[in-house]
């Protein structure tokens, strides 16, 4: 986790860096800091807690300098306090470092450095890096050689940036296992450029118009007025800069009070964009995955969190349309098994960020077994996208709110289109059926708009149940993943103990939870499972439970049985209904969280991109 940023250019570095941190704070937000470099030395400012604490400190104690590095932290080693906030410096303040990742041999290095006289000021793993660099400089290495040598001694994963006090116009960056990008502006009239580094594209905006991705093992040397040299294994490497497609608007909240609210509202446009890229003249456009899908007889989905819920729907789609055997695996479990790798197996990694450490490890494990890997990712510059054999982009645009919303519905639709692609490759999708399913997909953006337009019952329920200590979500078939996803949303942003169950399983134990204090949210759209769900709702009602139904607004039986109904439009194809059913649950979590005074974009203890184990 954590986000790192850096700037070299004509502007005052501190404000540029705090904007970059603002865009990276979804990666961690328990402390923040920056250092600038001038001829007078290194100037450090750090603050515990939210970024605004650092901003207030900078207002009280401004720093000058046109070169700087900055960090927003999600604590791994050491409590989230100012002492442990980055940047970290060596005892003599000769070098400052910001770091994303984990240095696994930090204990050993710390003891060795302490034996040589280093005095540590924090409990972090990161602090070994500046002490190590300072020692290597004292041993006579120049700045770049010291970074090169340090990388041979550091174990674990990192993207780090270092500034040396005796070279205040230069930033050195190294990558192994954690993402980092180099950004640069268009050249000014005199040929100079502004340079940036960042863990993610939004933080490069608006100063950089082009970016290059560092690979594992790369060391980049950035110098004023705009040169970038990269080396790999000691040999020079030409960085490939590409135009940045994301605009600054896309990473701004605009008129919304939170990124989550904005991203929920964006869903019709996101689905329309994905369909636009995958349907031409009513027929499916098949991205080239470099694979013979006809020969695939077993698919393994790897994912975490919300992406895992989407993959559960992917299994249903593939089984229904392509009759392929599918396994859904949580990445952190898959990576520590010795999964059977048989011919005909395809691994599909699903990840919004494309940087989730466990999913990436699963991808690497699969590749080590010579299994082909497809990545269904939102961030197409991510490590998973680059390491997968084929990529299915979600095109959802930057998702900044920690709670995934628009990426989830895009994942579900993306998986549906992928299932159609596999079905077509296997000769199981007659043209008429393809046209029918794509017409059903085409109806989704409007149905999503209509469903989102009616949130009266959601607001009413949030008023009634915001103080509840627990909430249960029930669903059957395709709505079981919706129940899990609805519960995850409520847990992560409203801190309510929420659980999702397959409704048929509820009576095997969890029904003991039911009382008049427990809201039970029952997903009961007009699909093949409706009658069974109505029976499950009766079971809860018979035990005095408080029931919120999620289904057709004009379903009289549902209205009779439930205290409240969240109305959702009916999809023309049952398989697609979960895309609509999740919408009121996203909004319910949002409204409940607001009533409980929670920060929906930055829930406690979390970070959006989980790049550590
Ligand atoms: O970027 P990924 O899709 O790989 O992230 C996976 C999970 O960390 C993520 O979905 C997480 O569960 C979200 N906070 C859910 O809202």
Q: Can you characterise this structure?
A:
- The longest helix is centred in the last third of the chain and has 20 residues, at 406-425.
- The chain starts with a strand and ends in an 18-residue tail after the last helix.
- It has 613 residues and is of the alpha/beta class.
- The protein has 3 domains: 3-250, Aminohydrolase, N-terminal nucleophile (Ntn) domain (Glutamine Phosphoribosylpyrophosphate, subunit 1, domain 1); 277-442, Glucose-6-phosphate isomerase like protein, domain 1 (Rossmann fold), CATH 3.40.50; 448-603, Glucose-6-phosphate isomerase like protein, domain 1 (Rossmann fold, 3-Layer(aba) Sandwich), CATH 3.40.50.
- An 8-stranded antiparallel beta sheet has the order 3-2-4-1-10-9-11-15, covered by helices on one side. Strands 5-6-7-8-12-13-14 form a 7-stranded antiparallel beta sheet. Strands 19-18-20-21-22 form a 5-stranded parallel beta sheet, with helices on both faces.
- The protein contains 19 helices and 27 strands.
- It binds 5-amino-5-deoxy-1-O-phosphono-D-mannitol (M6R).
- The site of 5-amino-5-deoxy-1-O-phosphono-D-mannitol has 15 residues, from helix 8 and helix 16.
Number of domains: 3
- Structural class estimated from helices and strands: alpha/beta
CATH superfamily of the largest domain: Aminohydrolase, N-terminal nucleophile (Ntn) domain
Give, in spatial order, the strands making up the sheet with the most strands.
Answer: 3-2-4-1-10-9-11-15
Distance between the termini: 10 Å
The fraction of residues assigned to DSSP E strands is 15-25%
What does the radius of gyration come to? Answer: 26 Å
Structure ligands:
5-amino-5-deoxy-1-O-phosphono-D-mannitol
Can you tell me the CATH class of the largest domain? Alpha Beta
| CATH architectural name of the largest domain | 4-Layer Sandwich
Give the number of helices.
19
Number of DSSP E strands: 27
Average pLDDT: 93
Molecular shape: globular
Low-confidence stretches: none
CATH topology (fold) name of the largest domain:
Glutamine Phosphoribosylpyrophosphate, subunit 1, domain 1
Percentage of helical residues? 25-40%
The biggest beta sheet, please?
8 strands, antiparallel
